Amino acid sequence: MKTKAAVAVAPNRPLEIHEVELSGPKAGEVLVEIMATGVCHTDAYTLEGKDSEGIFPSILGHEGAGIVREIGPGVTSVKVGDHVIPLYTPECRECKTCLSQKSNLCTSIRATQGQGLMPDGTSRFSLGGDQLYHYMGCSTFSNFTVMPEIAVAKIREDAPFDKVCYIGCGVTTGVGAVIWTAGVEPGSNVVVFGLGGIGLNVIQGAKLVGANKIIGVDINPAKAEMAERFGMTHFINPKDVGNDKVVAAIIDATDGGADYSFDCTGNTDVMRQALECCHRGWGESVIIGVAEAGREISTRPFQLVTGRVWKGSAFGGARGRTDVPKIVDWYMDGKINIDDLITHTMPLDDINTAFDLMHAGDSIRSVVLY
Ligand code: NAD
Ligand code: AHE
Ligand code: ZN
């Protein structure tokens, strides 16, 4: 079939809108009509050539919601007409990792996914006879896409696509990192570095679990107002206090340091601050931000010897097929706020505007409506 898609032709070039060829689902795969997709900073990072797994030409996008339109042979867990959220972290329930129950990082199709291919090692997308690569196993910047059935979460049919698409990455990543990765307890002091589409969801997760102080850190003061609305109690702008005084300011404000901190910037210097502002003996810092290829983190080992813990989180530690439908319920029950974080919507033809808004710091989430 033909489908309209935004094609990433090369690094640092605007996405190009094309009618691309999409071949149908093979065994264990489903054809999904994407109804809406968010634009995450990770899409921009890959488009900028910062992703060591970035491949071109490809169809980016990994934060979508849609409807199953066709199923391949052997598919049993979803049927035509089901509403689904694509999962860049699948849940096969059979691999060593899924069975361990210790991690959400299902390994069953990770190798081919990182090569921009479907599990059989081929692509379903092409343009003018030339192969296009998939992205994060999702490619939601295409109106129709093909997904393995283990990489879609079936969701309730009354959930609006234009809002719950954000659960496909940002909401789950932020809220999940608080609940599943960190296990933040009520009364904890929490610090969030980077108050964008992920950081604000960390803030609402921290508020949801009953955190005490929720300190937000961002170099863009315009982000503070929305963060306060979502539960931030104190704001620090490194440009005001001095970048070298941020850690001390947090330690002062928390009587010795944060119980939990989260990096939502992808900046490795900020990651160090996020670790070092943690409380001696027990403070835990969770890296969510994705750093440019080649970057490394560093700190004095004494920081860890004296009890601080450094860990990371992918997709909030969520097991997609199990947890994503629950997060949709939380939204539908009014427990989490998605609507106010979606600051812009646009048709696919205007998708490059979403990247411009992100880079200017003028949006939280832009959502493309098909
Ligand atoms: P965003 O652009 O919406 O927000 C980033 C925020 O960080 C902005 O408000 C910006 O002003 C702020 N910032 C930038 N540099 C800063 C600095 N030096 N100090 C303080 N604040 C600073 O991006 P997003 O969509 O929220 O994504 C945030 C990060 O999380 C990205 O690196 C993205 O790739 C990553 N991410 C990771 C996962 C995961 O599963 N681990 C999932 C989604 C996104
Ligand atoms: N491909 C990059 C790493 C990118 C990365 O860390 N991605 C996150 C999700 S970001 C969503 O917006 C993730 O889930 N990582 C786990 C995984 O298996 O990819 C690189 O460095 O090669
Ligand atoms: Zn994302």
UniProtKB/TrEMBL annotation:
It catalyses: S-nitrosoglutathione + NADH + H(+) = S-(hydroxysulfenamide)glutathione + NAD(+); S-(hydroxymethyl)glutathione + NADP(+) = S-formylglutathione + NADPH + H(+); S-(hydroxymethyl)glutathione + NAD(+) = S-formylglutathione + NADH + H(+); a secondary alcohol + NAD(+) = a ketone + NADH + H(+). Residues 10-368 form the Enoyl reductase (ER) domain. One of its GO terms (cellular component) is cytosol. The keyword DNA-binding does not apply. Its EC number is 1.1.1.284. The keyword Zinc applies. CDD domains: alcohol_DH_class_III. Its cofactor is Zn(2+). Keywords: Metal-binding, NAD, Oxidoreductase, Zinc. Has high formaldehyde dehydrogenase activity in the presence of glutathione and catalyzes the oxidation of normal alcohols in a reaction that is not GSH-dependent. In addition, hemithiolacetals other than those formed from GSH, including omega-thiol fatty acids, also are substrates. Also acts as a S-nitroso-glutathione reductase by catalyzing the NADH-dependent reduction of S-nitrosoglutathione. Belongs to the zinc-containing alcohol dehydrogenase family. Class-III subfamily. This is S-(hydroxymethyl)glutathione dehydrogenase. It comes from Sphingobium algorifonticola. The lineage of its organism: Bacteria, Pseudomonadati, Pseudomonadota, Alphaproteobacteria, Sphingomonadales.
